[in-house]
Amino acid sequence: MARISLIPQKREFFELYNRSAENIVAMSDRLVELLDRFPDGTDELVGVVKQLEHAGDGLTHELVDLLNRTFVTPFDRDDMYRLAGALDDICDHVDEAAGRIVSYGVTEIRLQAREQAKVIRSSAGKLADAVGLLEGFQDSRRHLDELRELEDVGDRILHDSVSSLFMARVDPLEVIRWKDIHESLESAVDACGYAANVLEAIVVKNR
After folding, report:
1. Residues 84-126 pLDDT 10s
2. Would residue 96 count as lying in a domain?
3. Per the structure, how many domains does the chain have?
């Protein structure tokens, strides 16, 4: 039978959230590298992204397991589940975007995709900075506001990239492939934005 702890294990929870956020940064770094180096090292880098996605799953499992074994949590239990899930979703989207680069058989990387990957990396960094301030519910508004600005940048890049695809009159299959890839990349940015909203709500509720 699982042991139930009546003592708040605050430090361990915050450490796991920080490790999850740092893992997202590492995944984003590899995604940027994948698009910059393509096609060199593609299979290796996609494999590293997949390994980091599995590591993210493991951290989410640790968090959920700890939550299930802890009677008194450092903040609202549902919010803790929500934040863990939001961080895990980012990993899934980054992994999906990297996988599509390979599975869709593209032969070269569009400039807009590289720009999107950099927005993901910057967003992940801002999110990690904000998660680092979660213990003690410190003010992370600057990091979260900057992340939302990056989300707007990502929206503009997506719009421009899809528009340019249709205007270029390229092979319809190429349009479909790249539209899916661009939308996968944007989904990762949006997932960072959602995690920022969850995080902000937690801080506001507990200050």
Report:
1. 999 999 999 999 999 999 999 999 999 999 999 999 999 999 9
2. yes
3. 1
Between the CA of residue 19 and those of 14, 107, 113, what are the distances in Å? 9, 35, 27
Give the residue among 58, 67, 65 at the shortest CA–CA distance from 8: 67
DSSP SS3 for 5 = strand
Contacts of range 164-172, beta carbons closer than 8 Å, 24 or more positions apart: 164/112
Structure tokens at 15: 């450490």
Determine the structural domain holding residue 193 and report its residue range: 10-206
| 74 φ, ψ (degrees, to nearest 5) | -70, -20
What CATH number did the domain enclosing 72 receive? 1.20.58.220
Tokens at residue 200, please? 């902000």
Which residues, in sequence order, are CB contacts of 43 under 8 Å at separation 6+? 102
Task: Residue 153: name the closest of 110, 197, 196, 115 by CA.
Answer: 115
Q: Is 4 part of any domain?
A: no
